[in-house]
UniProtKB/TrEMBL annotation:
SUPFAM superfamilies: (Trans)glycosidases. Residues 38-283 form the Glycoside hydrolase family domain. GO terms for molecular function: hydrolase activity. This is Glycoside hydrolase family 5 protein. Keywords: Glycosidase, Hydrolase, Signal. Residues 1-15 form the signal peptide. The keyword Hydrolase applies. The keyword Hydrolase applies. It comes from the Bacteria. PANTHER family: ENDOGLUCANASE (PTHR31297:SF17), GLUCAN ENDO-1,6-BETA-GLUCOSIDASE B (PTHR31297). It comes from Yoonia phaeophyticola.
């Protein structure tokens, strides 16, 4: 299986640009406590559909800490290997993301050793894979894990990763759930590190009628002059850093009016494109879906929102 991902590079690895351009998250699958708990299991046909629509990357959120008992379970590693192999067959890059490590957010000192051990094992396991595999060290630092503490965790584990993966792209993000403002307190530990942020602004719009919330925001609208000025300001800020920057998540809940949902999504995508920021929509088939699994076709209006102009 690993042989699929091995390749000869035609230029020095450190000279390669950050590869993520158009990406979609495989949400509500492997970041659930167990795959299928949240209603979605990754299928090979979904990976083929993503490639056919013009995306070049998938982001694979995995709750590795739920599969750790002194070592990662062989079952979770085999399942992740399988999804990566499906992506490789479609020539898609994969962002492998440590997701929902909630204990680390509450108690960074107490969980730091486990965080490092997980990445030590993953780095060893994937040492032979080519540059289409990207490591994202931690999703959305929050609660007690502020940006400075997260940076200490990243810088502590990165030398271990580099010992076996010297040229692999690594993604880091800052506190406050990877806010755009947190980018200011991040820095590149080395030239093969990209910075990431997530964008759900305004939250009351992007999370309206969220089905998993007890009291979700009511229906709302977006797109007036002030809304667009905030968006332009935030994307200009994200694009101003002298480092590769990824918009790792953005999206609007599926109960939202389709025209409103598409308007916000397209505006965010176009502003990211205008500032040279690769992006990764949240998500594929869950509560922020772009794929209708009953028909295996686009959710109405979302193809134009994400793909038009590419």
């Amino acid at each position: 299986m690993r042989a699929i991902f091995l390749c000869l590079l035609v230029a020095p690895a450190w000279a390669q640009p950050f590869p993520v351009q158009r990406c979609v998250n495989l949400d509500q699958a492997l970041e659930a406590p167990r795959e299928g708990d949240w209603g979605y299991r990754i299928e090979r046909g979904d990976i083929a559909w993503i490639a056919d629509q013009g995306f070049n990357t998938i982001r694979l959120p995995v709750r590795f800490n739920a599969h750790w008992d002194g070592a990662l379970s062989p079952q979770i590693l085999a399942r992740v290997d399988e999804v990566i192999s499906w992506a490789a067959a479609e020539d898609l890059s994969v962002i492998l993301d440590l997701h929902h490590f909630e204990a680390l957010m509450r108690d960074p000192p107490g969980q730091a050793e486990k965080f490092a051990a997980i990445w030590t094992e993953l780095a060893t396991h994937y040492a032979g894979y080519d540059d289409r595999l990207i490591f994202e060290l931690l999703n959305e630092p929050s609660e007690a894990l502020a940006t400075d503490e997260a940076m200490r965790l990243f810088e502590a584990v990165l030398p271990t990763i580099r010992a076996s993966n010297p040229d692999r792209w690594v993604i880091i993000e800052g506190g406050d759930w990877a806010s755009v403002e947190a980018l200011a307190d991040l820095h590149q530990p080395d030239a093969r590190t990209a910075l990431s942020f997530h964008y759900y602004v305004p939250w009351e719009f992007t999370h309206q009628m969220a089905p998993w919330m007890d009291a979700p925001p009511p229906p709302g609208r977006w797109g007036d002059k002030d809304d667009r000025e905030i968006l332009r300001r935030d994307m200009a800020l994200a694009g101003s850093y002298d480092a590769p920057v990824l918009l790792g998540e953005f999206g609007v809940t599926t109960p939202t009016d389709p025209s409103q949902r598409a308007r916000w999504t397209k505006a965010v995508r176009e502003e990211a494109d205008a500032h040279g920021i690769g992006w990764c929509h949240w998500g594929l088939a869950g509560n922020f879906a772009i794929l209708d699994k009953t028909t295996q076709t686009w959710v109405p209006r979302m193809k134009d929102a994400l793909i038009s102009g590419h």
